[in-house]
Amino acid sequence: EDMCMEAEGEEDPTESARWARDNSDVVWCQTAEGLLQAVADGNLKVEVGAIPEGEAEQLLQAVQQVAPHIKALSLTGCHLDDAAIVRLGNVLAASQIEEIGVSNNVDVSAAAWGEFWAKLPQTVVKWDHGDNNFPDEVLPKLVVAMGKGRVQELFLDGNELADISPLLAVVAESPNLTELDIGDNNVGDEHVTALAHLLPGSNLSTLVLGRNPLTDASAQVLAYALPRSKITILHLDSTQITDRTLWILSEVLPDTVLEELHVDQTKVKDEGVLRFCQALPGSTVRLLDASDNGLSETTIAAIEAALPTDVSME
User: Fold this and answer.
1) Mind listing the pLDDT tens digit for each residue in 30-40?
2) Domains along the chain?
3) Pick from 259, 271, 265: nearest CA to 308
4) How far is residue 58's CA from residue 47's CA, in Å, rounded to a whole number?
5) Sign of torsion, CA 114 119 125 131?
6) What H or E segment, with its residue span, contains residue 286?
7) Termini Cα distance of the chain
8) Predicted confidence (pLDDT) per residue in 125-150, tens digit
9) Measured between alpha carbons, how far is residue 72 from residues 3, 17, 39, 46, 56 in Å?
10) Which InterPro entries is this protein grouped with (predicted)?
């Protein structure tokens, strides 16, 4: 069985992959040997996952060998403890790595994460720390580290974040930041509203807020900010939003650059989705996901009839 494979065709990586699933230029490996082979073969973007517990030492030795050569490294579900995380930072400190991910790696202390981030080079522009059970107190340490460079993409989905105040400065002061994923956390209306107020001055184009306890109270503020923003992809799935948010989105839609809207598994109803669909002609929207909302078959048929031919409905 190949321990390293390109993420394309039928050789899809396992479910645990985060980068290799969507990026064909990222090679998926499941062993330290696979990592060494992938880089020897000339691959500069690698993702390692599904490493058995107890093999972190071999993995870190392999990373140390390839660190001077690679541009992107994602380690997902690799069972790194405090000592291993700090050592990883030391290994990467002198590298020119541009994209770093350590995800699905719980039970690491905030202090160890802080040490790790402090070691990373200023070349890092993509940070992926999803599914790490981060509490709020790690954010200031991460923000300090990101402030040294030019962050472009930040993934913090699947954590336990509620107070994202430290991130607001990153959004406001990072002209290169185009993608922010804070989905599947505990972020409520107060902080989403504060974030919405910053959108007109930012270059964010992808914003993922799904699976958070937010309601119309903040989603409406967000909707009104869209015409003055660069948001093209917006995820509000699995939130508490209702038709009230969709009504405002329908009003402002012609003045936005929105291309994808995800409102699946929310509290929107037939009327709101229908009204939104009536606003689609003349908009830039190409994908609407309103699935799992209990819409009637009549509404779904009406939506499909109302959709411009170049818009797909999920």
Assistant:
1) 999 999 999 99
2) 187-314 (3.80.10.10)
3) 259
4) 15
5) negative
6) none
7) 36
8) 999 999 999 999 999 999 999 987 79
9) 18, 14, 11, 6, 19
10) Leu-rich_rpt, LRR_dom_sf, RanGap
